[in-house]
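go over this record:
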Amino acid sequence: MKIIPSFGVYAVNVLLFGQVYKGMLNIGMNPTFNNEHKTHIEVHILDFESDIYGESLTIELVKKLRDEKKFKSKEDLVQQLNEDKRLTIETLR
């Protein structure tokens, strides 16, 4: 049985290469830019620069920050992502 958390943005801990990093995770359909009806899972690791595509990692969902929503513009989305980042840092202190 698969259990998938509800669509939205989460503050997360990411275990990678034996280290724990803070991050933000989005689960949803990316409605601002995407008309497909496919579920996507994306994680942004804070203060992390390496290319890790293809690597395995473990994600611990700490707190749901908000539901997924469609934004009117890219600028509105970027503004919300900045707020999500602030809340993530505050949550994971």
